[in-house]
Amino acid sequence: MEETISLKELLETLRKRILLILAITFTAVTVSGIVSFFFLTPIYQASTQILINKSNMDQGNYSYNPQELQASLQLINTYNVIIKSPAILDLVIDEMNLDMTSAQLSDKITVGSENDSQVMNVSVQDEDANQAAAIANTIAKVFKTENIMKADNINILAKAEVAEGQAPIKPQPTLNIAIAMVVGLMVGVGLAFLLEYLDNTVKNEQDVEKNLGLPILGVISVIEESKLEDIRKRRTDRKTRTRGEFFGS
């Protein structure tokens, strides 16, 4: 016979294990908050924008040939690789006297084009917001000076700056705590149902009827010790009164 579980039984399982669920959720939230606020190092980000095109401004040619524009767009991926190459980063490290290798510096840099345009966005992440901005600006300057691809025009559209009271991009304690709460609830609920599934003890007459398939003919109630003592006391008092009435007559 196929066993079915009613919504009432599910809710009863959750009610019975509510302390376990809350304990796991509270622990997950607490650990996430402590780690986010006290153990994770804040990381800041600064960005600069570079415009690269093939137009010849000195000759007053402000119109774009569609083929030249397409070729410029295709070169963006090449420029992205060049910016993160040792040919550029080694010069940045030397100029700023950074205590890191070009590979380590490359891991801090993200380069991408703005909506497939000829504008490249160079973002740098670092534990120090001022150093992140300085690295981004130095990369843009060195890239423009070296001009490895011999582009006609390389212009720095926007320098990286540190805003007053700039917040780190990570960690995000509020988001981490929210995720920990959801995960804690999921783990708590899952563990509650698992424990209920593994619990094969007989607790009441319904379990006997369900597991053995036999009808219940009677139930022996459980009498608490305090109630049992009260019953004994009443019996003793009744016997005392009965004896008193007998000898009094």
UniProtKB/TrEMBL annotation:
The keyword Mitochondrion does not apply. The keyword Nucleotide-binding does not apply. It is found in: Cell membrane. Residues 146-194 form the Tyrosine-protein kinase G-rich domain. Residues 3-95 form the Polysaccharide chain length determinant N-terminal domain. It is a multi-pass membrane protein. The chain crosses the membrane at residues 18-40, 175-195. Keywords: Cell membrane, Membrane, Transmembrane, Transmembrane helix. One of its GO terms (molecular function) is protein tyrosine kinase activity. One of its GO terms (cellular component) is plasma membrane. Belongs to the CpsC/CapA family. This is Capsular biosynthesis protein.
